[in-house]
Amino acid sequence: MTSQIPDTFLYNGEEYELVALDGESLITPQDYGMQxxxxxxxxxxxxxxxxxxxxxxLFLTQMVIxxxxxxxxxxxxxxxxxxxxxxxxxxxxxxxxxxxxxTGKMRLGKDFIRELYVHMGYQKGSAFETLLEFSFExxxxxxxxxxxxxxxTKRGAFxxxxxxxxxxxxxxxxxxxxxxxx
Length: 182
What we know:
The chain is mainly beta. The chain is 12% helix and 34% strand.
């Protein structure tokens, strides 16, 4: 199994990875009638996204999608660009600015600690130096809290559990974005 490509979030000029989620309505290809196929072992769900968080809202700006039965469909009247000649490049919807109606909380990590890498699923918050928790209501930013200091007390907890815990449970947790798994 392989570590999965996370969704990326741009906030205040910095790039963050989605590490935990509690809520609904992040945008998916299924919202546009597309059923993506697995891209490769690092992207079982068949797509990944880039979002931008402004002082007010959450916007989808890019979506990479692999093969889609029946062909790709427009998102915001934009069709994907099909890269040519590049190894392992996939159809990409670029130039989107789609308000994302997400309601709930998400944790985004930055400054990944390489020694805490787990070669399966999504990396957990305890493997990042910087961890921010965002709250949204229908895509509108409600609050941002820097929980890096609190997170430092859990540093490496998931990797340790992954290496010593019950295998099936650890695999399930590795692929989960549940906020209670750290």
